[in-house]
Amino acid sequence: MTRTDPIAFSIVIPTLNEAELLPGLLADLEAQEFRSFEVIVADAGSTDQTVEMATSAGARVVAGGMPGIGRNNGARAATGAFLVFLDADVRISRTFLADLHEQLEGRFLDLATCQIVPLSDSSLDKFLHSACMAVIKVGQYVDPHAPGFCIVISRRLFERVGGFDESLRLAEDHDLVRRASQFRPLRVLDEPQVQVSVRRLEKEGRLKLATKYVGVELYRGLVGEIRTDVFDYEFANFAPKLTAGSRSKG
């Protein structure tokens, strides 16, 4: 790729003490067949080796904060036509960006999310993620949602809606997609897929977390967007635990 070639994708990753898992995603990005991209890590003050690992992998590091703040800061530094928001604990195939580019260009999309697959051998985890995807697929036509660990949006659309609302304490990802879908429809892509960590499920408990997410949606529907700490939320500090039903992604 020459210096005059446009960048197709800006990969934005918010981090806080992700030295254990970030290298896995960075290695996946380095292995991509499609090479027109840049990587931006928005770090919220890590005290481990996250920043050093990101820098050594060739990523640009900018100041982060809560996920919405970090993603906005990363977007401001981005030069790509599309912003791809990923979390540090996801994994992608070597054809992820190639498949994504083909889908976006072929279907003239400005807003998308991907099929999600849990990094777990647990039947319960697979069921929960399948149920979540079923809701997202149906909702793309009536009530668009997309998880923050995989949102793809054109930079022009992102700027048009003003990016993530930094005043929100939770569900800032769904809020962004809702506002953006007023101009361009969200579409859920079957390919490429994103493999997602189950570490939050393991720490908070499957039933407890599922119940909280239902409560979040009820609150948003009845009261409005979440601007106070009505729901507990912890950014980072979710080191994965090795259990019989899960595997580390590092």
From TrEMBL:
Pathway recorded for this protein: Carotenoid biosynthesis; staphyloxanthin biosynthesis; staphyloxanthin from farnesyl diphosphate: step 4/5
GO cellular component: plasma membrane
SUPFAM superfamilies in UniProt: Nucleotide-diphospho-sugar transferases (SSF53448)
Record-linked Gene3D superfamilies: Spore Coat Polysaccharide Biosynthesis Protein SpsA, Chain A (3.90.550.10)
GO MF assignments: glycosyltransferase activity
Domain of life: Bacteria
UniProt xrefs under Pfam families: Glycos_transf_2 (PF00535)
Alphabetical keyword list: Cell membrane, Glycosyltransferase, Membrane, Transferase
Domain Glycosyltransferase 2-like: 10-161
InterPro entries the UniProt entry points to: Glyco_trans_2-like (IPR001173), Nucleotide-diphossugar_trans (IPR029044)
Protein's job: Catalyzes the glycosylation of 4,4'-diaponeurosporenoate, i.e. the esterification of glucose at the C1'' position with the carboxyl group of 4,4'-diaponeurosporenic acid, to form glycosyl-4,4'-diaponeurosporenoate. This is a step in the biosynthesis of staphyloxanthin, an orange pigment present in most staphylococci strains.
Protein name per Swiss-Prot or TrEMBL: 4,4'-diaponeurosporenoate glycosyltransferase
Organism: Propionicimonas paludicola
